Amino acid sequence: MASLKDLRNRITSVKSTQKITKAMKMVAASKLKRAQNAAEQARPYAQRMDKVMAALGQSVIGQPGSSPLLVGSGSDHTWLVVVATSERGLCGGFNTNIVRAAKRRIDSLLADGKDVKILCVGRKGRAQLRRFYGPRIIDVIDMSGMRSVGFADAAAIAERVRVMFDEGEFDVAIMFYARFQSALTQIATEQQLIPVPCPPLKTGRVI
C-alpha cells in the first residue's frame, strides 16, 4: 500500500502534468486560430484569381501563339496527379479522404487508357498510394523539416510542375488537396492546374 508521502508525490506529479497539458492546449488553440484566420483571409483572393484565370483562358482560345499553359499541349494522354497531404498522421480522415478522391480519379484515368504520373506533396499520401501505384509515383516532396509552409514553398512546387510541362513530361495536371471549410471539416478537392480550366463565365467583368 502506498504511503502518504507517495500519494502526495503522485498528486503533485499529476498537477504538474495538468499544468503542462493545459499550456500545450492553449498553444495549440492559438496556432489553430492563426491558421484558420489565414485560410479564411486567403479564400477571397483565391476565388478571384480563379475567375481571372478563367477569363484569361477564355480570351486566348483559338488565338495563335497562345501559351500551352492556358490552352494545353493538344493532347490529354499523360496526366500528372499532384496529391497534397500531411507529413504526420493522427488527424482523422484528413489524409484518407484526399487519397481516396485521388485514387478514384486515377483509376478512372487508367481505365480510359491514360498514362498517369503521381507527385506526392507530403509523406502520408505516398505511404497510402504506393501500395496501388508504386511505379507511377515519380517523387515525394518532403515538408517535414518546415515549421510552416508559405507562398515561396508553394511557388517552388508550381515551378517544378511548370518545368515538367515545358519538357513534355505530361499533358494535363490536376491536384488533390483538402479545402478548408472549418477547423473540423476539410473537403477533399480536385483542381485542374494545366491547362487552365475555362468554365463559362457568369459575368463579363472579373476585376
UniProtKB/TrEMBL annotation:
- List GO terms (cellular component aspect): proton-transporting ATP synthase complex
Please give one Pfam family short name.
Answer: ATP-synt
TM regions (residue ranges) = none
Q: Report the GO molecular function annotations.
A: proton-transporting ATP synthase activity, rotational mechanism
Q: What's its membrane topology?
A: Peripheral membrane protein
InterPro entries cross-referenced by the UniProt entry? ATP_synth_F1_ATPase_gsu, ATP_synth_F1_gsu
Gene3D superfamilies (UniProt xref): 3.40.1380.10, ATP synthase, gamma subunit, helix hairpin domain
Q: Which locations, inside or outside the cell, does it occupy?
A: Membrane
Keyword Chloroplast assigned to the entry: answer is no
Keyword terms, alphabetized: ATP synthesis, CF(1), Hydrogen ion transport, Ion transport, Membrane, Transport
| Highest taxon listed in the record's lineage | Bacteria
Its biological purpose is as follows:
Produces ATP from ADP in the presence of a proton gradient across the membrane. The gamma chain is believed to be important in regulating ATPase activity and the flow of protons through the CF(0) complex.
Tell me its family: Belongs to the ATPase gamma chain family.
Q: What is this protein called?
A: F0F1 ATP synthase subunit gamma
What does the record give as the organism's lineage?
Answer: Bacteria, Pseudomonadati, Pseudomonadota, Alphaproteobacteria, Iodidimonadales
